[in-house]
Hints:
mainly beta; single chain; five-stranded antiparallel sheet
Amino acid sequence: MVATSSDHNDVYALSAGARIRISNVVALTGEYFYVFPNQIKSQISGSKVRNTFTAGLKIYTGNHTFQIFIYQCQWLEREAIPYGKYRDWLNKGIHIGFNFTRLFQVAHY
């Protein structure tokens, strides 16, 4: 549900991501979401729409991958595009996240 009837139910954005491999086990990652203008008219907490940027560090250790990243939305999946508007990097808007994945091999070919 949108905040007001002047807001669009669908919010369109353009996303770009990159990974720069530093060594065989370390990589820097980044992602940027550009929200197309005039889609979100209302404001949460009186602030304007902000495009979202995320930066991270990946470490590969055999079958595990660890990732630590910083971003400007508390819940990245839900808030990154439509609600990145009330987070500001310069005003307590940095959040830290951590992921890890494990590679499982079911069959050996």
